[in-house]
Amino acid sequence: MREKLIIGSRGSQLALWQTHFVKAKLEEYFPALTLEIEIIKTTGDKMLDVALAKIGDKGLFTKQIETALANREIDLAVHSLKDLQTVQPENLEIGAVLAREKPNDVLISKRFTSIDDLPNGARVATGSLRRKSQLLHYRPDLQILEIRGNVPTRIKKFEESNLDAMILAFAGVHRLNLDSYIKQIIPFEMMLPAVGQGAMAIEIRRADTKIKELLQKLNDEDTSLCVAAERSFLRELEGGCQVPIGANAMLKNDKIYLEGMAGNLDGSINLRDRISGDKNEAVGLGKLLAENLIEKGANKLLEMTRQIVENTEEPVI
Are strands 92-97 and 200-205 parallel, antiparallel or unpaired? Predict the structure, then answer.
């Protein structure tokens, strides 16, 4: 095996933090390895004036990196797991999933301490239909605005605006040492996170068995099992950036406890259910939970939501 490996990454501060974290771990375990980072711009990085849901959901933040990986321009890629499609390209696979950070979303606000504290009609920014749907289900009076950009960019836009609040993922804010902006860690009862939120994944070529062996040092089995259940749930519902779907799995005493939701854009419908079972049945549990929601009408709901998104223009901050 070559002693030099090239790691592919997006160029945002958070993506580079994650990639440098992986690089440092590999150097710690394998000092003889030479590791370089190659920055690759993705579709999602280039189109910052369009709502995420309008661009489409097929590899928005991963496609160009996966192409470089398949073409052997890089040897492995570090992703936020929530950005990865639930079905990998035929010649690629997830080689490792790292221990997960807290998967909750958080409230950012200059004046208010919680979602309950927000005044009637408060203006709240988010780039996620999942967050929008759950926020409006809990607080139908809120005004939700679309915001784009990486974590520091969104915080800067927020600081310079007259918005009342903004919702971000805890993991990104925390990893960039921006915790001072957090006013509330939003409980799962109020808002389920995106599938895989808070977890990092390392993608490799299926044929590179030696690299996969190296990566087992970084793989966290508990996180792998939990995100396998969540991704199975999402895959069965065929969801992505265009539809409001959330899930969270936790492992306790060899059992997985999985909760999932599907909603509509105005929050008036929120289908939510939970399931538990043996950790070795993670994928089956995700599929079963999705089937439970489909019985409640999730497929029709999500299809209707997709059509509304395709025919609606939302201004972007």
Answer: antiparallel
